[in-house]
Amino acid sequence: MDAIRNTVLEAWMTEHGYSSNSLADAVNSAVEQLTGHVGGLDGSSVRAWKAGRVTWPKSAARKALEDVTGLPAVALGFVPRGGPSPTPAPSQQEEPDMKRRTLVGGIAAAAATAAAPGAASPRRIGMSDVNRLNKRFAEIIASDHRHGGQPGIEERAAALADEALNLQNAGSATQRVRSSLYASGAAFRSSAMWAAIDGRRYDVAKAHMREAQALAEMSGDQAIKFRIWSHAGTMYRHMGRPADACAANDVARNLHLTRRDPLFASLGLARQGAIHGTAQNRADTRRAFEQAQDAMLRADPADHRPVWLLAFYDQAELDSLALSAYLALGDYPTAEYHAHRCLSSLRPHMVRSRAITTTRLAHALLAQGAAEAATATAMKVPTDAATRHARVSRMLQEFGAALRATAPRSTTAQTWTEHTTSWRTAA
Predict the structure, then answer these.
(1) What are the residues whose beta carbons fall under 8 Å from the beta carbon of 92, sequence distance 6 or more?
(2) Which among 147, 390, 397, 424 is most buried, taking Cβ atoms within 10 Å?
(3) Cα angle vertex 282, ends 279, 287, to 5°?
(4) Are 62 and 73 in contact (CB under 8 A)?
(5) Contacts for 43-49 with beta carbons within 8 Å, 24 or more apart?
(6) pTM of this prediction?
(7) 197-248 tens-digit pLDDT
């Protein structure tokens, strides 16, 4: 008997804008989220489903497909193994109508099974639910700028990512709402990823990254894809892996979003400049920051942009990235110049960024022989950041070691030792 095409799956794919290849990619990402291993499907696998050559996918692929679509497999036109075989239609002309009635009946039965117990109708998920989550996202962003990579921020962001995914299964929704929920889940996961990066918990950050990437693919949201891959580039830069950092940041920079919006292009270029600094590529560093500055000047401030970008990326952040790059290159006068520019324009809510920039300025001054000015600068870092923020704490420890190496028995070194003792007492 000839295989009967799965027109229900085909219709779902058409409605939601999936090709065979893109659905295979989405299912592979969902398989990885479920099992820890990337799925092995390709476009031909999905075409076999549509053609009816595969009537019941393997368990991992089937569960992943259900996660992607939000529907049980039987509601997508699949038939469990051992189930009844469809009866051939008496004529070629009647077959489509008979098949359609059979499949529609299957969808109705599956929907009834998937509904909440009892006779109540399933909840309708709408954009109001998405907007409620997005308000919580703004709170996470604000906490990050105040406190940096604390485990509590990471845990709250991860919990909200799970909440966004739970809403996918809480009722019916339009494709726009489902895509927005996946984007919200990806945004929260990327915030958990960033908190882990900022706290130097890199193995945890990688786990968040994988989940965020899978959700971003299912959402189709270019901005959140940019954020995740750009964060990945920063993570690898902090880990001292500039080649991986450059490759990850290139994924972000090659999204068409950067061609449409110069501000995204500017951020990608500025982070690329910081990576080039780590890799000791002096000419590439200078060129990247010149291009980043030019792109920022071309960006229209009135354009609509996501809250996470508006909350941090401006001239001060561009100078902060340049400061990091020129410190890595050993160009301390240029690093000092960007540090002062950054501090002069930092917005009040950027508490974590001010602590990092102040610490880097202290390093730049010390490297130029200004030990007293450097120590006075380092002492301006608030106790909370100095003792609780992993990156700041490490940079200040490195500052103290460099100061003692430069002037081991000086009054300045003694002053710094007494100051750090007071930090430990206060903590």
Answers:
(1) none
(2) 147
(3) 110
(4) yes
(5) 43/19, 44/20, 46/20, 46/21, 47/20, 49/6, 49/9, 49/78
(6) 0.68
(7) 988 889 999 999 999 999 999 998 999 999 999 999 999 999 999 999 999 9
